């Protein structure tokens, strides 16, 4: 036999009642009929309470009473055949008359006792259960209506009565025995005391009724039918990726019960827990969904944690002082005091230095607790053995829960890594030695971010979401969006990371969407946005959105975003940049970026600063961290100049080849940066710094490629004009090289901390002789790669390879 309980929404409408009857039909088809426990129709308990309070204030309540009657009558009319309606109307009318008399009494006396309130509230369950038992009867055959006050006996604590278990169980068993094979409908929530007065069972009361019946009748299972698909991994209002759990242990269900949207109130399940009866949470509105099973032995899940619980508003009180150290009885006094005053303590921490005890309470009780402590420890305070207790507000508790975390190392590491990476400060920590709950106290404003980051960290079969903000929609920026869109399917299948574009800005407009902008139609969204571009505003909005796992991507060639890198790092937001200006400013700035990123748990990835997508920055880093020492770096790192020298042959003029390099997207937005050697200088500077040298831009000697007239050109147009005029100069260079069987190469070198770039003519024996297209080449001579250097070679400029490098850096942030 099973006990099925249906909550307020499941009995709240004609449609849901029909579904309920269908569920019962299936349940009764080839088994013993279940015992059905029902709540009041959704909203009815509140309406009854409202009427009672109005009456006690001397306000009218007839409108509400009428609403209540009409709702039930309309339901009867929709669900019952005409000839069956009358007896039901009569019984309901009797209920409503009695209720009216009661409310009238409250109105006359202007007094609402807890006892009367319980009686008034009982009409919700009585009306709904009677009515639905009759609806079921019409479709399924004879049913029995049981007012639970006849069998559940309690003490006289009205409002939250204590059940007299033995007596109750006996009465339930007798009743069941006297009605064999019948479909029994029981009112949830209500009971009675020995004098026969109606009492109620407090919070989660109907669940409790179900558990009491389940336990008394040794039922096979208790089903709790509600309006969600089960217990979720986290509060679904804050975590979009939260999903219903298949299976939980009782302990886990208890620990997870702190969600805002409560599915069940686990303390009510204790009778079932003691008898090891499985509890199944089911959705009336999706009856075929399996729901969540809460059971004693739960083996199927391998997940180390089952869910993340959250309590949204708490205050902490810190009691500290040297007088507490090594003193037994102090915490005993403190917590006895709180217990005496009925102040519920949510969480306690004390470090082994015993210098302070921190505990969390509901904000409404914080001041009272503080005052009580001050009074209790007056002498210690006066003697300065302890300090005045301090209250801190605006805090919340986040807890990861799961029995499998027991004896599993790395769980707390993962939790704190996720919090730390997102810049979330942990105010206090608690973990019991039973190891099925680790609780942290954090600032309430960080709750959504923390929940999502921690959810991503533990439920890895779902994708980790990176929230990406892109600045610059030119050559590289737009190519990146295209690549993201082309590879989204691949990423979905093969990578644990979901890249969500949460914001985009160019120099005209900016647009935000925390649900993610389309990588295909981003341009329309940006153009259509109401926000005019404003870099400081863009950064402020990124911070205010406070999303987890954020990455800022700088795809500009502008010095402006550089000013915001540190601010981003300080908010634990990682930066991926192909913009070289940041790393090639002062050494002090370069160092500060690294340090700030590091100390705030953020990443700073700039692989494309050198050799576009080629693995150069990463390779150098690997050499350095593994203890190698750079002896020499020789490199061709300008894709543009490489392309020019590789294509400056035949009839094409130097001018034409430069134009072609720009068209192909190899040059900087301003091609003078390439041809004056600035871009190459920046790359050598960044490599030298990454190789451990404290070096400034002015320390680098830049060899000229251009005649002075071109170097001096003030605008890009002037520059091209001068370049055209200087055709003869470049032709002569080319001829001179050809005469001696050589080619032109612009080569950078780092040795002994000195960096220079020079234009050279090299013969076929030189390792840099054979290059084509926009190839870069870099050779690292190190202590370990001494005889034969390590060489990286390949296309080192162009939108495709650069955007791909930026893409890889973004994914790398997600992998950390
Ligand atoms: N082209 C390559 O092969 C290559 C290789 C490696 C690195 N890079 C680097 O990539 C960066 C971008 O190059 P690109 O070819 O895409 O240049 P681009 O000129 O096509 O695009 C840059 C975009 O940034 C925008 N921008 C500038 N300042 C801005 C601001 N303050 N706010 C918002 N947007 C702003 C510009 O309007 C422009 O649309 C450069 O720093 C370049 O050095 C390029
Ligand atoms: N303009 C750069 C792009 C790659 O950083 C080059 O030509 O090498
Ligand atoms: Na690179």
UniProtKB/TrEMBL annotation:
<dbReference type="InterPro" id="IPR036291">
    <property type="entry name" value="NAD(P)-bd_dom_sf"/>
</dbReference>
<comment type="function">
    <text>Bifunctional aspartate kinase and homoserine dehydrogenase that catalyzes the first and the third steps toward the synthesis of lysine, methionine and threonine from aspartate.</text>
</comment>
<dbReference type="InterPro" id="IPR036393">
    <property type="entry name" value="AceGlu_kinase-like_sf"/>
</dbReference>
<comment type="subunit">
    <text>Homotetramer.</text>
</comment>
<keyword id="KW-0486">Methionine biosynthesis</keyword>
<dbReference type="GO" id="GO:0004412">
    <property type="term" value="F:homoserine dehydrogenase activity"/>
</dbReference>
<keyword id="KW-0521">NADP</keyword>
<comment type="similarity">
    <text>In the C-terminal section; belongs to the homoserine dehydrogenase family.</text>
</comment>
<dbReference type="InterPro" id="IPR011147">
    <property type="entry name" value="Bifunc_Aspkin/hSer_DH"/>
</dbReference>
<dbReference type="InterPro" id="IPR005106">
    <property type="entry name" value="Asp/hSer_DH_NAD-bd"/>
</dbReference>
<keyword id="KW-0067">ATP-binding</keyword>
<dbReference type="InterPro" id="IPR019811">
    <property type="entry name" value="HDH_CS"/>
</dbReference>
<dbReference type="InterPro" id="IPR001341">
    <property type="entry name" value="Asp_kinase"/>
</dbReference>
<dbReference type="GO" id="GO:0050661">
    <property type="term" value="F:NADP binding"/>
</dbReference>
<dbReference type="Pfam" id="PF00742">
    <property type="entry name" value="Homoserine_dh"/>
</dbReference>
<dbReference type="GO" id="GO:0009090">
    <property type="term" value="P:homoserine biosynthetic process"/>
</dbReference>
<keyword id="KW-0915">Sodium</keyword>
<dbReference type="GO" id="GO:0046872">
    <property type="term" value="F:metal ion binding"/>
</dbReference>
<keyword id="KW-0479">Metal-binding</keyword>
<dbReference type="GO" id="GO:0009089">
    <property type="term" value="P:lysine biosynthetic process via diaminopimelate"/>
</dbReference>
<dbReference type="GO" id="GO:0009088">
    <property type="term" value="P:threonine biosynthetic process"/>
</dbReference>
<dbReference type="GO" id="GO:0005524">
    <property type="term" value="F:ATP binding"/>
</dbReference>
<dbReference type="Pfam" id="PF00696">
    <property type="entry name" value="AA_kinase"/>
</dbReference>
<dbReference type="InterPro" id="IPR001048">
    <property type="entry name" value="Asp/Glu/Uridylate_kinase"/>
</dbReference>
<keyword id="KW-0520">NAD</keyword>
<keyword id="KW-0547">Nucleotide-binding</keyword>
<dbReference type="InterPro" id="IPR042199">
    <property type="entry name" value="AsparK_Bifunc_asparK/hSer_DH"/>
</dbReference>
<dbReference type="GO" id="GO:0004072">
    <property type="term" value="F:aspartate kinase activity"/>
</dbReference>
<keyword id="KW-0028">Amino-acid biosynthesis</keyword>
<keyword id="KW-0457">Lysine biosynthesis</keyword>
<comment type="pathway">
    <text>Amino-acid biosynthesis; L-methionine biosynthesis via de novo pathway; L-homoserine from L-aspartate: step 3/3.</text>
</comment>
<dbReference type="InterPro" id="IPR018042">
    <property type="entry name" value="Aspartate_kinase_CS"/>
</dbReference>
<keyword id="KW-0560">Oxidoreductase</keyword>
<dbReference type="InterPro" id="IPR054352">
    <property type="entry name" value="ACT_Aspartokinase"/>
</dbReference>
<comment type="pathway">
    <text>Amino-acid biosynthesis; L-threonine biosynthesis; L-threonine from L-aspartate: step 3/5.</text>
</comment>
<dbReference type="InterPro" id="IPR045865">
    <property type="entry name" value="ACT-like_dom_sf"/>
</dbReference>
<protein>
    <submittedName>
        <fullName>Bifunctional aspartate kinase/homoserine dehydrogenase I</fullName>
        <ecNumber>1.1.1.3</ecNumber>
        <ecNumber>2.7.2.4</ecNumber>
    </submittedName>
</protein>
<keyword id="KW-0511">Multifunctional enzyme</keyword>
<feature type="domain" description="ACT">
    <location>
        <begin position="400"/>
        <end position="478"/>
    </location>
</feature>
<keyword id="KW-0418">Kinase</keyword>
<comment type="similarity">
    <text>In the N-terminal section; belongs to the aspartokinase family.</text>
</comment>
<dbReference type="GO" id="GO:0009086">
    <property type="term" value="P:methionine biosynthetic process"/>
</dbReference>
């Amino acid at each position: 036999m099973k006990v099925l309980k249906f909550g307020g929404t499941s009995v709240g409408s004609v449609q849901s009642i029909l579904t309920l009857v269908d569920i019962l039909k299936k349940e009764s088809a080839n088994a013993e009929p279940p015992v059905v426990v029902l709540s009041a129709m959704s909203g009815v308990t509140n309406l009854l309470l409202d009427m009672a309070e109005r009456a006690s204030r001397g306000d009218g309540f007839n409108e509400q009473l009428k609403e209540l009657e009409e709702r039930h009558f309309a339901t009867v009319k929709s669900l019952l055949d005409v000839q069956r309606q009358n007896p039901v109307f009569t019984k309901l009318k009797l209920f409503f008359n009695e209720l009216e008399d009661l409310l009238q009494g409250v109105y006359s006396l202007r007094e609402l006792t807890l006892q009367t309130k319980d009686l008034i509230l009982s009409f919700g369950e009585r009306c709904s259960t009677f009515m639905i038992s009759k609806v079921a009867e019409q479709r399924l055959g004879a049913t029995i209506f049981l007012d639970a006050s006849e069998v559940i006996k309690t003490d006289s604590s009205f409002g939250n009565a204590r059940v007299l278990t033995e007596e109750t169980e006996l009465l339930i068993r007798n009743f069941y025995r006297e009605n064999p094979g019948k479909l029994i409908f029981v009112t949830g929530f209500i009971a009675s005391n020995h004098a026969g007065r109606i009492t109620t069972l407090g919070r989660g009361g109907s669940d409790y009724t179900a558990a009491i019946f389940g336990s008394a009748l040794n039922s096979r299972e208790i089903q709790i039918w509600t309006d969600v698909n089960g217990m979720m991994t986290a509060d679904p209002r804050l975590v979009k990726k939260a999903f219903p759990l298949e299976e939980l242990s009782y302990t886990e269900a208890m620990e997870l019960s702190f969600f805002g949207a409560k599915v069940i109130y686990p303390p009510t399940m204790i009778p079932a827990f003691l008898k090891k009866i499985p509890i199944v949470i089911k959705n009336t509105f999706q009856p075929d969904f399996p729901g969540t099973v809460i059971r004693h032995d739960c083996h199927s899940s391998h997940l180390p944690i089952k869910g993340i619980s959250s309590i949204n508003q708490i205050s902490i009180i810190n009691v500290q002082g040297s007088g507490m150290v090594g003193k037994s009885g102090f915490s005993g006094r403190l917590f006895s005091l709180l217990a005496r005053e009925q102040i519920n303590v949510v969480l306690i921490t004390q470090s082994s230095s015993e210098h302070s005890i921190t505990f969390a309470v509901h904000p409404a009780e914080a001041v009272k607790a503080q005052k009580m402590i001050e009074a209790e420890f007056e002498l210690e305070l006066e003697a300065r053995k302890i300090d005045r207790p301090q209250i801190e507000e605006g805090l919340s508790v986040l807890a990861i829960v799961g029995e499998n975390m027991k004896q599993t190392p790395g769980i707390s590491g993962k939790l704190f890594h996720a919090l730390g990476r997102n810049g979330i400060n942990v105010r206090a920590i608690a973990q019991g030695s039973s190891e099925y709950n680790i609780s942290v106290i954090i600032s309430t404003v960080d709750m959504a971010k923390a929940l999502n980051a921690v959810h991503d960290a533990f439920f890895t079969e779902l994708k980790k979401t990176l929230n990406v903000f892109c600045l610059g929609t030119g050559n590289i920026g737009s190519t990146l969006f295209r690549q993201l869109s082309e590879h989204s399917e691949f990423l979905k299948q093969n990578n644990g990371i979901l890249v969500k574009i949460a914001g985009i800005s160019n120099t005209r407009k900016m647009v935000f969407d925390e649900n993610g902008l389309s990588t295909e139609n981003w341009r329309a969204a940006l153009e259509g946005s109401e926000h005019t571009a404003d870099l400081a505003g863009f950064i402020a909005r990124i911070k205010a959105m406070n999303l987890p796992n954020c990455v800022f991507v700088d795809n500009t060639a502008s010095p402006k975003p550089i000013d915001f890198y540190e601010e981003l790092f300080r908010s634990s937001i990682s930066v991926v940049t192909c913009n070289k200006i940041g790393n090639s400013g002062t050494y002090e700035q370069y160092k500060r970026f690294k340090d700030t990123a590091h100390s705030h748990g953020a990443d700073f990835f700039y692989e494309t600063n050198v050799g576009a997508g080629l693995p150069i920055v990463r390779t150098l880093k690997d050499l350095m961290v593994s203890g190698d020492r750079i002896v020499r770096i020789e490199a061709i790192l300008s894709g543009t100049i490489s392309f020019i020298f590789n294509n400056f042959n035949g009839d094409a003029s130097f001018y034409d080849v430069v134009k072609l390099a720009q068209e192909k997207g190899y040059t900087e937005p301003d091609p003078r940066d390439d041809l004056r050697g600035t871009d190459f200088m920046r790359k050598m500077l960044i490599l030298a710094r990454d190789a451990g040298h404290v070096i400034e831009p002015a320390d680098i000697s830049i060899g000229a490629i251009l005649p002075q007239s071109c170097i001096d050109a003030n605008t890009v147009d002037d520059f091209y004009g001068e370049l055209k005029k200087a055709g003869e100069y470049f032709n002569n260079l080319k001829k001179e090289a050809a005469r001696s069987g050589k080619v032109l190469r612009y080569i950078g070198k780092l040795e002994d901390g000195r960096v220079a770039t020079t234009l050279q003519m090299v013969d076929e024996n030189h390792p840099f002789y054979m290059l084509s297209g926009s190839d870069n080449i870099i050779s690292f001579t190190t202590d370990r790669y001494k005889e034969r250097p390590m060489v990286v070679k390949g296309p080192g400029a162009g939108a495709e390879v650069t955007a791909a490098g930026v893409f890889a850096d973004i994914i790398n942030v997600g992998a950390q």
